[in-house]
Amino acid sequence: MKYVFLDTETTHLDPELGQLWEVALIVRHTHYPSLGDQEFWWQVRPDLTTADPKSLQISKYYSRNHQIRELPIGHGAQLACASGDESTEGAVMEAVTAAQVALRLAQHLDGATIVANNPCHDRDFLRSFMHAHGQALTASHRMDDIRSMLKGYVYGRLAAHGGEVQDAFLPDAAAYVHDWLIGAMDVLAWEIVGVSQAQETKHTALGDARCVRDVFDGITKGNHE
Predict the structure, then answer these.
(1) Domain 2-144, what fold?
(2) Best label site of 131, 137, 165, 193, fewest CB within 10 Å?
């Protein structure tokens, strides 16, 4: 089975008005564990004519697009994902066009199960981007929403322990579950499965894709217990 943990950053929440400008994939072949997780990261300069300023602010577009800001619209770069040398992360590996990115996305996503935080949003922008550049999205129509997975995990543990939060979770995680149950938090915290995302990596495609992967592993492998 092929899982692709991914995240996109876009210029608008509506795919009919906005465009994808950053995407990161982490590809995992469960039948070939020796391959490990393969990371890919691209930025493409979008047309900002119909962009939503708030979306650009959240994704830190103007402070993080150093590699593409001077390029023509539709051109971009494949960026380096750190591999033992953190200083290389974000460096340009290769100049690319949007059409080249679309082809590589099509190849990596072919037959894959997408795992994401709000995967419908990512799928819609990926499909729009790929169709605009002559490619088709052939990933499985069954996607895994990491927040829904985490909710199922929490409810499952509660059911197995008579509904007692303190019995179902370690103390640090129990505090987050309790706050969510009483409505003090709108969403479940990743810390419930031992994942803490650095603030500077939030709303970045690679940082969020890695977070999704880590939460998935925390849920399925129980490596936080």
Answers:
(1) Nucleotidyltransferase; domain 5 (3.30.420)
(2) 131
